[in-house]
Design a protein that fits this description.
alpha+beta; 3 strands; globular
Length: 64
């Protein structure tokens, strides 16, 4: 899976790209070419996300 995420980060996405995780759950990501971070990550309802600052939504509307 790391190779797939690296490829997505390197070439970017034209649309949302689905990624199946090892536990068979899915996330959807969107990235610009040569990205160091994904622009958007959407978690499917089956994915549990820890309530920590690492997952905080940071965008221009929230930081202004």
């Amino acid at each position: 899976m790391t190779a797939r995420m690296n490829r997505i980060a390197a070439v970017g996405t034209d649309q949302y790209e689905r990624i199946r995780l090892a536990d068979n759950t899915m996330i959807t990501v969107k990235a610009q070419p040569d990205a160091t971070d994904f622009d958007e990550v959407a978690f499917w309802s089956s994915v549990t996300v820890p309530d920590t600052d690492a997952w905080a939504r940071e965008d221009l509307w929230d930081s202004g």
